[in-house]
């Protein structure tokens, strides 16, 4: 039994000897599927991650609010560094699933509902996720940490400033801010949205840009997504602001991985992930520069 499994087996909520299985996919924490007396739970182990501005108290508050809004599974137990959730039997979505027009429409409707309803259930301090603030701090963190990408940082700071100047004005909603396909579950009847560690008040364009870039949407799918979300014909002005926010979203993913290369102790190939993120970001920025700068 590993140290993590030994810790999990000692939690006070179990009625019998729990069966513990590791789950793959965690990039800032460790995840386990636990079965106890026929019931199944997801256990997330991980403390605060200061270099990514993750506070587990914010994640807990957002997880509870999301359950109250009917968006996420229930929180069953928590203590510092531990979050135990009800297990949802279902399929984890893939980018290919979300590219399907019917599934994409359901995903966008769920995102809009979470944006609109979460503030009514959130208790405690209001977390904010502002990508341009994150990018500026990542520049400092990478410079201070002696990152091998240090020579690129001046350009990244300039690009962040360009994107910020072209992405407003802003509406404010409660954003998830990490819309990977794997954070959507389909139980056969409905969709669920999980993993709220980056959540906070933000512009809806950041979530929409993240959804598109994380799931390889072509332009036609991006335009359909925006019209589905806003329920109005897409204007040139909105498309331009969205393109600027998409550049910020792609750059944030690049720099997130670069910072993780420096500081994360989890077993994950962040160097390879940085390479993949750069392959997405660099042509997208060249296209943005040609069309909007």
TrEMBL record:
Entry's Gene Ontology cellular component terms: cytoplasm
Any Pfam family hit: Choline_kinase
Domain of life: Bacteria
UniProt GO MF annotations: ethanolamine kinase activity
Signal peptide: none
Regions that span the bilayer: none
Single GO BP term: phosphatidylethanolamine biosynthetic process
Keywords assigned: Transferase
The UniProt record lists the keyword Oxidoreductase: no
InterPro entries with a match to the protein in the record: Kinase-like_dom_sf
Keyword Transferase: yes
The name this protein goes by in its record: Phosphotransferase
Organism this protein belongs to: Sneathiella litorea
